[in-house]
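tool_call: predict_structure(chain=1)
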Amino acid sequence: MNTAEWLEKGASMLRPSGKAGVRSTQERLKGALRHDDEAMSPRQLRRLLDQLKGIVDPLLSEVEGGSRAQALMAWYARATPPERRDLWLLMSEHFVADAEQIKAAQTQFAAAVGTPDEAAAEVLYRRATVSPRRRILQRFSAHPEGIRFLVDLRAEMQSHLKADKRLLALDVEMEYMFSTWFDVGFLELRRISWDSPASLVEKLIKYEAVHDIRSWADVKNRLDGDRRCYGFFHPRLPEEPLIFVEVALMNEIADCITPLLDEEAAPVDIAKANTAIFYSISNTQNGLRGVSFGDSLIKRVVETLHQEFPKLKVFVTLSPIPGLRAWLNKNAPAELLKSWENLEQLTESAPERKTLLGWAARYLGKEMQGGKPLDPVARFHLGNGARVERLNWAGDPSNKGSKQSYGLMVNYLYDLKRLEKHRAWLAQGKIPIAAAIEDLYL
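tool_result:
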């Protein structure tokens, strides 16, 4: 054994094994040696923590703090995924609100309740609960590319949350801050058309999450004269739609997606159109998960369409039912599941068809979890005040539609005079449904 081998053997005996358990960043910062499964040594980790503390140093000006944040953004761009994860952990575990200050402010607020000092004490209490972590995020956001950096950082972090709960504090903090920064009051509604910049049209192809765009001819069809596409944009992400909706103008409620995606179909005379079909809504930024602006998008688009086309009276979706088949596999009897294997062979009067529609109606009209509709798409539209209007057999005959819901699709109706009433029903645990859906119940 040569000298180098002997030194390595001795160091390995002193270095704790990664199998002994995952160390917190606090433990690593106090250590002298890096575990085999750790990206950064204690010394490197301490240096990175000092950089983070420097960003929120109260003695620094906003300009200097922003400059330090920019330097850390440059480091992050070069860092490996494990090194980036160490940064997340430091931000999540070390920049917490002072517990003693919170306790003191809480005591002061409790003593002030019912007195003229109550309002001021409440403000001081809320201020005491604000973590330095939030200040770090604010310093990053001050940079022109800071919002983009933070949104991408949170998106990258999402796949690690289930395995490492230590990251949840940072994730929740970022969701809260994004809810403020991306408030609909700061967002611009813009129409996306075939005349929009090619880079923007390419974003539609990239982010379309409901019905895959197959070609440039396909996307051109979706932006044709009898169609509309609108997106919400943020000033710091001017060429990046945060969410977009695709709309078809028609003379009746659509019951199948195929004609809407048919590139050879004759366009509708929009001067006579009375129905707007929302057939695809796609969020584009995984880093904004939990930030809700879809309901505001629907409202704004309805207002915009109504101004352009006063004859529009019906606003309705043609939506997938993504959770149906998985729910049926868990809840429907095996003999029924077997009978639904060859749906294309069923006649309109076949009992198996009626049975499937009945189970689907029950899924959409009754199944809830945590006080909200079980199906994610239903949860979105019903939460916005829509109601379950109609089930459509073979609405999506694609492989994706078959895997999700045996090809069934649903129309959610936005009755502008009853949106608040429907929300109130939902809050009481009652899903708003049309009589036609109720008639399908088994």
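agent: The mean pLDDT is 91. Proceeding to next step.
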